[in-house]
Specification:
CheY-like_superfamily; about 40% helix; phosphoprotein; about 15% strand; two-stranded parallel ribbon; 7 strands; alpha/beta; Response regulator rcp1; TCS_response_regulator; Sig_transdc_resp-reg_receiver
Length: about 160
């Protein structure tokens, strides 16, 4: 164990995003902003729900999902418009479950509809970020998200890793 690992648990980033291009841009640009935490990516809300609430022990790799750590060790980046189960339902389930309610959820989506923004905050999202449609603006928004993740305060014993 390195000295930095002894300080606290590394927080994993769970990206729930159905668009492969957006997912690649988010991870790549968070890395460029200095975030070196582990990433887990799911292409729809059902995969994320299976990961967090599936019937399997913590730390065990079952099927196509990577091992799941203590459920308090994640920050979720959540798209809203996805197939099978949308981001609203994922957010609702995460925030209503005592096991995941304290987990930070950052909605990262293309919609700027005030009703959808209000609904997300009512469901318990911690931060709502609108993904710009224009490529350079999207890259800049993700870069700023990376800087935000570097300074965000997490519960004692948990930390974001910045390279």
């Amino acid at each position: 164990m390195t000295g930095s690992e002894a300080v606290g648990k590394t927080v994993g980033i769970v990206l729930v995003e159905d668009d492969d291009g957006h997912a690649t841009l988010v991870e790549r640009n968070l890395r460029r902003a200095g975030i070196s935490n582990g990433f887990v990516r799911f292409a729809d809300g059902q995969q994320a729900l299976d990961y967090f609430f599936g019937d399997r022990p913590l730390g065990e790799n079952v099927g196509k999902y990577p091992p799941r750590d203590d459920l308090t060790n994640y920050v979720v980046l959540l798209d809203l418009k996805m197939p099978r189960v949308d981001g609203f339902e994922v957010l609702r389930r995460l925030k209503e479950s005592p096991a995941t309610a304290a987990m930070p959820v950052i909605v990262l989506t293309t919609t700027d509809d005030p009703r959808e923004i209000e609904r997300c905050y009512e469901l318990g999202c911690n931060v709502y970020i609108t993904k710009p449609v224009e490529y350079d603006a999207f890259i800049e928004a993700v870069r700023r998200l990376g800087f935000f993740l570097q300074v965000v305060k997490l519960p004692p014993g948990h930390r974001m890793i910045v390279a």
